[in-house]
């Protein structure tokens, strides 16, 4: 709990935890670093508009959809990335292959990782059998608000005299990563 809420005194935080709602046998995490055509999968903001990146992603999703029963939901890290994919895929024929039904009539949905609407939705057992997260939604480090928040957390840690082992991230870096992981969760 301390890294997530390092700016709060420990006596002001409580924790509640439950078991996972799906069995471990039904859970698999796969990290894909290269596309089927051999392209590197880098989803930083500057790369998200490149048609080759979008094309590799589309082919990965087509291949994955052919293996996964009963559809999938794909989470994008930004509206820009999602909209670019929606523009590129029809031109390349990828979207048509999803819509043609050559994926056994599967239903595929698209959303944003930080979209509050999707949180708490329980899919029926025969829907969205795969959850795909495309890129991680790191906040913009150029944001003045974020920079000030990170500066404050780091100063608070220094004020408390917290010492970290060499190589360990400071409170600001942990906050930044935790914000991203919170959006993914």
Structural class: mainly alpha
- Please list the strands of the largest sheet in the order they lie side by side: 2-1-3
Instruction: Count the domains.
Output: 2
Computed Rg: 20 Å
How many strand units? 3
- Taking pLDDT < 50 over at least 5 consecutive residues as the criterion, the unreliable ranges are 102-106
Count of separate DSSP helical elements: 5
N-end to C-end Cα span: 15 Å
Looking at the structure, what is the overall shape? globular
Percentage of residues assigned to helices: 25-40%
H/E element order: HEHHEEHH
Portion of residues in beta strands equals: 5-15%
Average pLDDT for all residues: 79
Reported for the largest beta sheet, the result is:
3 strands, parallel
What's the SSE blueprint?
Blueprint: H1 51-67, E1 72-76, H2 79-92, H3 94-100, E2 108-112, E3 130-134, H4 144-160, H5 171-184
Parallel strand pairs: 1-2, 1-3
Helix pairs in contact: 1-2, 1-3, 4-5
């Amino acid at each position: 709990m301390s890294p997530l809420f390092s700016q709060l005194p420990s006596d002001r935080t409580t924790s509640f935890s439950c078991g996972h709602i799906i069995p471990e046998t039904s859970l698999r995490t796969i990290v894909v670093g290269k596309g089927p055509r051999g392209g590197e999968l880098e989803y930083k903001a500057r790369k998200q508009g490149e048609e080759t990146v979008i094309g590799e992603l589309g082919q990965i999703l087509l291949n994955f959809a052919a293996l996964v029963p009963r559809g999938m939901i794909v989470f994008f890290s930004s509206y820009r990335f999602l909209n670019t994919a929606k523009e590129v895929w029809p031109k390349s024929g990828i979207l048509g292959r999803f819509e043609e039904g050559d994926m056994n009539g599967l239903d595929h949905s698209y959303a944003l990782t930080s979209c509050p609407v999707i949180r708490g939705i329980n899919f029926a057992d025969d829907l969205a059998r795969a959850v795909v997260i495309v890129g991680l939604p790191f906040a913009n480090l150029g944001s003045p608000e974020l920079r000030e928040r990170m500066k404050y957390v780091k100063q608070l840690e220094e004020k408390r005299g917290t010492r970290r082992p060499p190589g360990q991230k400071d409170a600001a870096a942990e906050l930044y990563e935790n914000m991203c992981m919170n959006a993914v969760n």
